[in-house]
Design a protein that fits this description.
globular; alpha+beta; single chain
Length: 152
Amino acid sequence: MSKRNFKRLSTFDDKVVQIETPIHEDEIHNRQNDYSLLPPQQFAKKYRSLLFQPVKITYKGKPFEINTNHCLDPYCKWFGLPQRKFDDVKGKPHRYFIGSPKDGKQRINCNDDPINHGKGQLTLNCSTPTASNWSLAEEILRLETLNRTQSF
């Protein structure tokens, strides 16, 4: 008699992808409250530091880090580099700043290099649309769960 291998569709309980939540439950609760209380500009200003925070996921036993909010221009000095604060420079500038949305979409812009200004490769005042790293991780989880079967 042959052994049959029955399969079923995956559910979110199967933990196909594990996401390390980047913030604590208290912070999630505060964000949910602030979202309805604060005007959009104040909310964005209060939580803008989370924009550059990477999210860690585990997929098929391998750890990955998702961080899409960096310069995408390969000719720019800051190409692919994470956010950094230059503590040793007066005014403590950052590698990127959040620009005002002209078309309703938030963008990150490259600041000039405060340490080696005008030397070497230049920053090109690039502008890149922002994306939520956490939302991308959740979408990966959703897609992997929908497209997988489990044996039982």
